[in-house]
Amino acid sequence: MQSLQQLLEFDRLHVWHPYAAMPNLLPVFPVESAQGIHIQLMDGRSLVDGISSWWTCIHGYNHPRLNQAAHAQIDRMSHMMFGGLTHQPAVDLTMKLIAITPAALQQVFFCDSGSVAVEVAMKMAVQYWYNRGLPQKQGFLTIRNGYHGDTFAAMSVCDPINGMHHLFRNILAQQYFAAAPQIKFDQDWQKQDIESFATLLAKHHDHIAAAILEPVVQNAGGMRFYHPEYVRQAKALCEKYHVLLILDEIATGFGRTGKMFACEYAEVCPDILCVGKALSGGFISLAATLTTQEISASFATDEAGVFMHGPTFMANPLACAVSLENLALLESYDWQSKIRSIESQLKAELEPCRSLAAVKDVRVLGAIGVVELHNLVNMQTIQPRFVEEGVWLRPFGHLIYTMPPYIIEPSELQAITAAIYRVVAEI
Question: 93 and 224 share a domain?
Answer without folding.
Answer: yes
